[in-house]
Specification:
The complex is a heterotrimer of chains A (516), B (324) and C (326). Chain A has 516 residues and is of the alpha/beta class. Chain A is 34% helix and 23% strand. In chain A, α4 packs across α5 and α13 packs parallel to α15. The chains are: A alpha/beta (516), B mainly alpha (324), C mainly alpha (326).
Chain lengths: 516, 324, 326
């Protein structure tokens, strides 16, 4: 296989500081093959893509294209050696028109236009500024530009996302035809239906390692899901996890802490409704980019909703600024600690920050000490490294972002993947804390990319796919395979029944093409 | 045709505003005519070059606060070198000064790329550095300029094939401006390098993915800005006959003209034409205020206010663009 | 890196940490070093009188630099302080001929606060880069001052005895300006550490998004901050005119560049979130001594500006390096 493979990457490793994004990834693509690259969130797909396209240098590993070692790393170099990629965010320069974008990359116009037509866009004004074109068209143009220079290996990252069904179909067609000429395509997708319809083989990544290469045939979904889950470290049950969920204990009709109806925002969040009960930990499960960022953005007051309404304790609420959300008792813990922390300041200042927002005057240090020390003790934050927060470990940093709200007396905690990239002990502590808070009458909305957390800490889980709620599961049946299937838009019980809904369950809102 | 109108809509609007202002000027001062236009063009010249320099850096996504200081350096260098030298030697001086401008711009750009300090901070520091260099070359206003150089921007030029009645309305200063800017801008705008400059300012990541050498492009943008600043400095020496080491009010005026001219401060958008027309508009406002015998100091206040308001409006537009 | 243990932290990294935690130590060493060099070049120059003089000249600079320190903590800068100080000084000197000194001083601080307020509204509400905004306001203020000068041409000017006493006087060899400066500095230093407003300056400069998520409305802080900066610049102008005793239209303008340099040298990050006023005071002293040194060495004005420019650039670039990896 190796001798005749177009692309052969092996032993690729890459670390960002102490975090290993790729441990030992490999990928082999033969001629005329459509090869799927799959993995759960944070498995290392995007890092591998960046390395293949030359945007990032690997720490170690070998990349052979047509059997030749590739040493220089830059997108231009990758392009010259025959590997071209189409990213999720189109690489067209927003302020240049299409013709200038072609000239910038040295793309010949005629083949480009030929591909544009083949991809289903009949009318294209070359002098239209890229910024003014709809996202779907930009992605098609990006693809046509890549095809026009006839690459040996074409890398498509979630190519059909944000495409209406008719264009997505054309894209799949073109990909198939591309392979008939002996060229290969690496296809990254969250959609099993596309993978099984299109791909020959699939490489599965988990925790930065290639854990398997499978031939795509009937029933391959099960095999892939299994590989993606693997045998994971047992985290153990969090302390105080009730056997009965809060949702079950509550009588019907009681006012929920938070009721969300038909919420839509941005381009990804379409229509989401659910209730968060008092004293409940509600999990939110979604693959990357299904609208969860927008959901949490709206709830935390960082962005505006386009449609729908939010009710807090039975009264409708509108948030124009995070301060409004905080006043309504909704506080936000982002996954990326860099977004929430003052890295150059002390633990104390970070925890006391919400108090300063409203009180500009002299600080009552005695009172602050009591509050801050209380929060530090409750979360067992290791403050031996006095001084700047950036010197704390990731786990301790995450605790600081939560401690800030414990000190203020929290009602509703919006946690966005709070345990991403932190050690197991801290994870356990955070689980216990969330359960404790719920037992005391707080509510927690927990988006998590670690599926097992649903059974460890949540009472229920809502699954979002394509900007809509596709399933709501009580924790006792929300095991990892079930959640994984639901997150991929597959029905709850895989059976021989026909899969409901048309191929990509994406809301293909009518996008007008060509110049308006 | 509609494409052209759409693309240059802002510049066309500005041009209409300029014509309107000229009509108002004529109403205030019925005698305003060819000589008035001539002095307007001469007054606008250094501002126009400063603005051109700022435009290219802003398009590339940066900002250059050291433009006025670079103009001072080139102005005193030219004046000091031409002091007592022959008329012919002035040709060498001009070439040397232009190269000097490019070198200074390159230093700015390289420092921005190497130090990874934001453009605005690097060029603030370089503002002081170039100011100091100008002071070292000439401690007080002095030096001289070759006669033929001074003559280049005075009066009108006969253009073959055009009757004198028309050429009387075309001051030499305007021709100098058009030729100097055109010779650099037109080939650049159409080249792949020019596109790269726009690309880097518009979306640096997309540019990198499109195979653009981002750092090199930035340095080039600063170097071209240095070249334009050198032209501006030469023009200063040509119009005053001496070199002054203290930078003029060109920095803020250039930023205001850039914003008024439709170039987004975030980078990637706009052209050279709009800002240059904006320069003439701002100069003409000053002329009108003078003609209305407004205290020149009040004129300065009004001018400053216009610029600040323009920049604030630019900020508003950028804010709305971001939220949309 | 994976084999590295807590014991074997490379010296370079340890040094960087030390510099970050104790920014005052190297500054004071530098200050003492400069004084020693000066004494070696001109034996006998360093005496009680020279020290008092140095402090007298350093104080207006230190007050002006407080404006830079406070605004830089939020990631901003105030380039209008030079002209604002001049406006206050000039207005006071002309108003005092017809008004009581206390009233003249109050009148003179009003335009300072207004200019600061305008800066704050531009930077905080309209999100114009503070550098551009304050530069624009300084242009307007320069024109405004000239207009004002023509209206008061006939009145003449004077320096009230109280300001002259404050700016120039000494009591038992100790400069009187310390009477104003010590409490002022104490208020700034404590205010930064022990008030909500001070904490918010750091928070906004460190991570505006995090501050927002914690419910901070940054624009309110910015507006108040720049008004405060205007007030401080006005006070600096009054002290300075008491020292120089000759109000002019460009009195404090040459202090602008040193005020930025003093804050940068003093360890305040031009990117925001880090620094304090203590370092700035030492920075102002260093620059005052350095100016004396350059004068003794007969270094021309141009070279001085080049040096100051490169100091700002070098310190900022070093700051980028120190903060980015560890």
């Amino acid at each position: 296989m190796t001798s005749e493979s177009l692309l052969d990457a092996s032993g690729v490793c890459k670390s960002y500081g102490p975090v290993a994004a790729l441990r030992d990834a490999s990928l082999t693509v033969g001629p005329g093959e459509v090869h799927a690259l799959v993995g759960a969130n944070g498995a290392g797909k995007s890092t591998l893509v960046k390395i293949l396209t030359g945007a990032v240098r690997p720490d170690s590993g070998r990349i052979l294209i047509r059997g030749r070692d590739r040493k220089v790393h830059s997108p231009a170099e990758a392009r010259r050696s025959g590997l071209v990629s189409v990213y999720q965010e189109p690489a067209l320069i927003p302020d240049l028109d299409v013709a200038d974008n072609l000239r910038l990359t040295g793309t010949p116009v005629d083949p480009f236009m030929k591909w544009v037509r083949a991809l289903g866009i009949d009318k294209l004004d070359l002098f239209e500024t890229a910024r003014d074109l709809p996202l779907a068209v930009l992605r098609i143009l990006d693809l046509a530009r890549a095809l026009a220079i006839e690459p040996d290996v074409l890398l498509l990252d979630e190519m059909t996302a944000a495409l209406p069904a008719n264009l997505a179909e054309k894209v799949l067609d073109v990909v198939r035809r591309q392979c008939e000429t002996g060229r290969s395509v690496i296809f990254i997708s969250h959609r099993f239906l596309e993978i099984s319809a299109l791909c020959d083989r699939a490489t599965v990544l988990r925790d930065g390692e290639t854990v398997g290469v499978v031939d795509v045939e009937a029933g391959v979904e099960e095999q892939i899901v299994e590989l993606m889950l693997g045998t994971r470290t047992e985290l153990g049950r969090a302390a105080g996890k009730p056997q009965q969920s809060a949702g079950d204990r509550r009588p019907e009709g009681e006012t929920p802490r938070l009721r969300i109806s038909n919420l839509g925002a941005g381009t990804k969040l379409e229509d989401v409704s659910f209730d968060l009960q008092v004293g409940e930990v509600l999990g939110v499960i979604a693959l990357e980019g299904q609208g969860q960022d927008e959901l949490f953005g709206v709830l935390s007051g960082s962005r505006r909703a386009l449609t729908g309404k939010i009710e807090v304790d039975g009264t409708e609420a509108r948030f124009r600024h995070p301060a409004d959300a905080i006043r309504a008792g909704l506080v936000y813990v982002p996954s990326n600690r860099v977004d929430a922390l003052l890295m150059q300041r002390s633990v104390r200042e970070n925890i006391a920050l919400p108090f300063c927002a409203g009180a500009w005057g002299p600080i009552d240090m005695a009172k602050e000490n009591v509050r801050v020390d209380g929060a530090i003790e409750r979360l067992q934050i290791d403050t031996r490294a006095q001084g700047e927060v950036q010197r704390l470990s990731g786990g301790n940093q995450q605790k600081v972002t939560i401690a800030r709200w414990i000190a203020t007396g929290v009602q509703t905690l919006l946690c966005f993947d709070p345990t991403r990239g932190i050690d197991i002990r801290t994870k356990r502590e955070i689980y216990s804390l969330l359960r404790e808070l719920a037992a005391q009458g707080s509510s927690v909305l927990l988006y998590t990319s670690e599926l097992e957390e649903v059974q460890l800490v949540c009472d229920r889980a809502v699954v979002i796919f394509g900007g809509r709620v596709v399933d709501v599961l009580p924790a006792d049946i929300a095991n990892e395979p079930t959640l994984m299937r639901a997150a991929y838009g597959l029905p709850r019980e895989v059976s021989s029944d026909a899969i409901p809904g048309s191929a990509p369950a994406h809301g293909a809102s009518g996008i007008e093409l060509g110049p308006a | 045709m509609t494409q052209t109108v759409r693309r240059h809509g802002w510049a066309i609007g500005l041009f209409a505003l300029l014509v309107l202002l000229l009509i108002i000027t004529k109403l205030i001062q019925p005698g305003y005519g060819a000589s008035g236009i001539g002095s307007l063009a001469r007054a606008a010249l250094p501002f126009a070059f400063a603005t051109a320099a700022q435009v290219i850096v802003v398009i590339a996504g940066g900002i250059d606060l050291s433009i006025a200081s670079m103009m001072a350096v080139t102005s005193v260098t030219a004046a000091a070198m031409m002091d007592g030298a022959s008329e012919e030697f002035a040709v060498v001086v001009v070439l040397f000064v232009l190269l000097l401008g490019i070198a200074m711009g390159m230093i700015n750009g390289i420092l921005v790329v190497l130090t990874r300090v934001p453009d605005i901070v690097v060029t603030l520091a370089m503002l002081f550095v170039w100011e100091g260099v100008a002071l070292l070359i000439l401690r007080a206003p002095g030096g001289a300029a070759a006669e033929w150089l001074k003559g280049i921007i005075v009066g009108t030029a006969g253009i073959p094939g055009l009757p004198a009645e028309i050429t009387a309305w075309i001051p030499k200063a305007l021709l100098v401006l058009v030729v100097c800017l055109g010779i650099v801008w037109l080939p650049l705008r159409r080249s792949r390098l020019g596109l790269s400059i726009y690309a880097v300012g518009s979306d640096a990541l997309a540019a990198f993915r499109s195979g653009v050498a981002v750092n090199r492009t930035k340095v080039v943008a600063y170097a071209v800005a240095g070249l334009f600043a050198a032209m501006g400095g030469l023009v200063l020496t040509m119009s005053t006959g001496i070199g002054a080491p203290i930078p003029g009010p060109y920095l803020l005026a250039s930023v205001a003209a850039v914003v008024l001219g439709g170039v987004a401060l975030g980078g990637g958008r706009g052209g050279l034409l709009g800002p240059i027309i904006a320069v003439f508009i701002l100069r003409l406002v000053r002329t009108d205020l003078t003609l209305l015998s407004v205290d020149p100091n009040i004129t300065t206040v009004i001018e400053g206010t216009i610029m600040v308001v323009v920049v604030i409006l630019g900020g508003l537009v950028a804010l709305r663009g971001r939220s949309a | 890196m994976s084999t590295g243990t807590a014991v074997a932290i490379p010296i370079g990294r340890r040094l960087r940490r030390f510099l970050r935690d104790q920014p005052l130590v190297p500054l004071i060493v530098l200050l003492v070093g400069l004084v020693i060099v000066l004494e070696v070049l001109r034996p006998g120059i360093v005496n009680e009188r020279w020290i008092a003089n140095t402090i007298k000249f350093a104080i207006p600079l230190a007050i002006l630099a407080s404006c830079q320190t406070l605004t830089m903590l939020t990631g901003g800068i105030d380039l209008s302080v030079g002209i604002v100080a001049t406006v206050s000084a000039f207005v006071m000197a002309t108003q005092v001929t017809t008004h009581d000194p206390a009233i003249a001083i109050a009148i003179s601080l009003l335009p300072a606060i207004l200019i600061g307020l305008a800066n704050g509204i531009g930077a905080g509400v309209f999100r114009v880069h503070p550098l551009i905004m304050t530069l624009g306001l300084s242009l307007i203020a320069t024109g405004g001052l000239q207009v004002y000068q023509r209206t008061v041409l006939a009145t003449g000017s004077a320096i009230p005895d109280s300001l002259a006493w404050l700016g120039t006087g000494r009591t038992n060899g100790v400069p009187n300006s310390l009477v104003l400066f010590v409490p002022l500095a104490a208020v700034i230093i404590l205010g930064l550490r022990r008030t909500g407003f001070g904490r918010l300056l750091y928070a906004i400069g460190d991570n505006e998004n995090a501050a927002r998520l914690s419910g901070v409305r940054a624009w309110q802080v910015i507006v108040v901050l720049y008004a405060l900066s205007g007030l401080l610049a006005g006070i600096a102008g009054l002290v300075y005119v008491g020292l120089i005793k000759a109000p002019s239209l460009s009195l404090a303008v040459p202090l602008l560049l040193p005020s930025v340099a003093a804050a940068v040298i003093g360890g305040t990050s031009i990117f925001g979130g880090r620094g304090g006023y203590g370092g700035t005071i030492v920075g102002a002293l260093i620059l005052t001594v350095l100016t004396t040194l350059l004068t003794v060495l007969q270094v021309p004005e141009g070279a001085r500006r080049i040096l100051f420019g490169f100091i700002i650039l070098a310190v900022t670039a070093a700051h980028v390096r120190i903060t980015e990896d560890s």
